[in-house]
Amino acid sequence: MVTSLFLSLLLLSVGAYYLGRKRAFTVANGHIRNLHSLPSFYGSYTALWCLLPALSIFALWVTFQQGFIIDLVVAGMPPELRNLPPDQLNLVVNDLKNLVSGNFVSSAPDPAMLAAADHYRHLRTLGHTALWVTVLSLGILGVVHAWRAISPNLRARNRVEQVVNVFLIASSTIAIFTTLGIVLSVVFESIIFFQKVPISEFLFGLQWSPQTALRADQTGSSGAFGSVPLFAGTLLISGIAMVIAVPIGLMSALFLSEYATPKFRAVAKPALEVLAGIPTVVYGFFAALTVAPFIREIGTSMGLHVASESALAAGLVMGIMIIPFVSSLSDDVINAVPQSMRDGSYALGATKSETIKRVLLPAALPGIVGSILLAVSRAIGETMIVVMAAGLSANLTANPLEAVTTVTVQIVTLLTGDQEFDSPKTLAAFALGLMLFVVTLILNIIALQVVRKYREQYE
Amino acid sequence: MNKTASSNPLQRDIKTIVNAGLVRRHAAERRFRWYGLIAVTLGLAFVVLMFGNIISKGYPAFWQTYIQVPIQFDPAVIDPEGKRDSQALQSADYAALVRTGMRRMFPAVEGRMELRALYGLVSSAGALDLQKRVLQNPDLIGTEQTIWLLASANVDTLIKGNIDRSLDETLRPIKDDQIGWVDRLQSAGQIEKQFNTILFNSGDSREPEQAGIRGALMGSFYTLLVTFLLSFPIGVATAVYLEEFAPKNRWTDLIEVNINNLAAVPSIVFGLLGLAVFINFFGLPRSAPLVGGLVLSLMTLPVIIIAGRAALTSVPPSIREAALGIGASKLQMVGHHVLPLAMPGMLTGSIIGMARALGESAPLLMIGMVAFIVDVPKGLTDPATVLPVQIYLWSDLPERAFVERTSAAIMVLLAFMIVMNGLAIILRKRFERRW
């Protein structure tokens, strides 16, 4: 319905383009040199006049139509329905929508509801017809206007370029709006959360059990929102991941850039980078179904108690995921060290490994630290692996064989499933999201700054 | 004389020291080299291990066990009134036909419990299959046919050798009686493995043997469609503006800083944004590919912009100057010359961005694309799920048959990723221009 109208409008604008072009030829008496702009610009000018006004009305209409129709329908309902309190009225409206779309209805429809549904359907058809008529006539009006405006002196190119320019600038501001949207959405919900739970408790509390009591006399579900165990768990898992990823990633980068033959490098480097392209949900599956049982088995055979969702399994697999991240970033950094420094070291009689350890690594250290910081921020924000392989209960422990939970796991568990938006439980997820955003942002800014400073040093 | 005598031992000293050290140093050199080689080998081993693990788990899921059952299309059951009324044909008790067929194969089985175990060998989808056949061809009524019916997931797992027969009966999902029947069917050639079309043709299901990835694939398709339609034009426009038009001032600096930071924001935070802004504020429907696409396009934008800017900077300035020199406007210069030359690089970046969006699941969990949805979505606002989220959902289920299907779904997902990345590499190799 909406799509077909959109397509017809597009078709109309294509027609408008050719119409405008032809018109330009006509007013120029067939000689293009009489025109200010190329004929295609007159065509685009006409097409834009056809599209832009019609599209803006179209968008507004689609946004507001449903609310408007519901208001009208509610106004037409019998008074005993109309005067219900707002939340009950919402239920009635929901029933109405279900009735109209032919889905299940919570109770047998009464005549008043059926009448309202008919009213709704009637208004909807009316609205759709009116939308078609308005949008298409606006499009045609635009074409007529442009048609009449076309003259050899019309600065069509400048007009069209202005519109394109506005589009370019608008596109480039989307990045800013996205950041703004992220900040505002998490900050607003967090503020509401901090009104219910003191910020000091959230930051320094050692207890995390977000189940709030349904009844006042319920035990063990008072709801505690201390985020320390979550951050401890996140750090534990990220720490394990870095212990795996940094040595392997760094050593492979060194080997591939300093020792490997070009042929070996050409095969091994992309093969390692395959690890970066695998979706994280696949790593999660691998961690939960292969690595975790394996670690548990080994631990049990050594007489250790290993939780089936141990931090070690999640951290190990996350480490594998981050290897290519560390290796390709440090590879860039190592390659940026000037060859003259290596040559100087060799000239003094140093072996390759001595050159690497005493010259290359100290010179590349800031860059490597930067890339490790980026990897840490990536590990902290990683979600699917920990959701699938780490635990749900918040334990404050440093033992990698026990189950811990992380910030991202809690965000996911708090926000999937049934939810209402005024309970501290769901709001807590946004507060955690805010913390996550702030921490990763700081890490990224420091890392990018360090890497940039370092690059400038050798450029 | 004295001079040489005193210097010679010293020289010999240095030589021995250096020589002695040389052995140590060369050993250290070799060690270091080995460490590097071990690191690379470990990394590559992980790649092989993961692929091997998933493929070995997943490939059996592409075959599915069927049981040959003689079905008598009894008119008394299907169409007692004999009117061939499609309503009646649709609502007839086809499960009864399946049950009769099973009983005829094993007439010795008696007792309620035993019969139920017997009926449990075939999937409940068998009745639907019969219904479809009858609706397509009503002439079947009254005839007798031997039909390959879908076996239940437990039989399938048994046939594939994933149930330990030596285990105690109570610990097995399939009982001794059932194993006996399956063995008899197998030796009679009435059990066969066929290519698993259900996996690709149906939506999700609670029964492993009836579950497919069609719904998730279509959901992924719609989501990626929205993502591409939004992020590609906007990303290209942003890259063009920042690279070709933007004045160097604080505003453009701010935009650049924002883009670089957005590229490193955890994906789950984008999910929070989608939940708070698109669903709660704008009231868009939950679980819809439209919202998923919006969120993923915000995530993909930085990737496309950064790749697009790199592609634009690689176009030499002489092209721009030549175009301006013969009187093109700045926009004509970009539109006619710079953009077409930069397009392969931009497309490569976008394909890589789309491949990442295809594998992304965390933000989609936030906007409700984790629901159990049986129907295949038919539009942008239908409730849907995507392939990675389907994998996540299935990986939680305990049945062995679902583990197999999860791995198979992962193989399909990885195949798509490989195709997309391969396309990007070909595009780059084919159209990359050195100036």
How is the secondary structure organized here?
The complex is a heterodimer of chains A (about 450) and B (about 425).
Chain A: H1 2-27, H2 39-75, H3 79-82, H4 86-101, H5 111-149, H6 156-196, H7 199-204, E1 208-209, E2 224-225, H8 228-259, H9 262-277, H10 280-301, H11 311-336, H12 339-347, H13 352-381, H14 384-389, H15 407-415, H16 424-457
Helix pairs in contact in A: 1-2, 1-5, 2-5, 2-6, 4-5, 6-16, 8-11, 8-13, 9-11, 10-11, 11-13, 12-13, 13-16, 15-16
Chain B: H1 2-58, E1 63-72, H2 75-78, H3 86-91, H4 94-105, H5 112-119, H6 125-136, E2 144-150, H7 153-159, H8 176-187, E3 191-195, H9 198-201, H10 214-245, H11 250-262, H12 267-281, H13 289-313, H14 317-325, H15 330-359, H16 362-366, H17 387-395, H18 400-431
Antiparallel strand pairs in B: 1-2, 1-3
Helix pairs in contact in B: 1-18, 4-6, 10-13, 10-15, 10-17, 12-13, 13-15, 14-15, 15-18, 17-18
Task: Please tell me the total number of domains of chain B.
Answer: 2
Shape of chain B: flat
Total individual domains of chain A: 2
Overall mean confidence score, pLDDT of chain A: 86
Which percent band covers the strand fraction of chain A?
under 5%
**CATH homologous superfamily assignment of the largest domain in chain A:** MetI-like
- How far apart are the termini of chain B? 69 Å
Q: Quick one: how many beta strands of chain B?
A: 3
Radius of gyration of CA atoms of chain B, rounded to a whole number: 33 Å
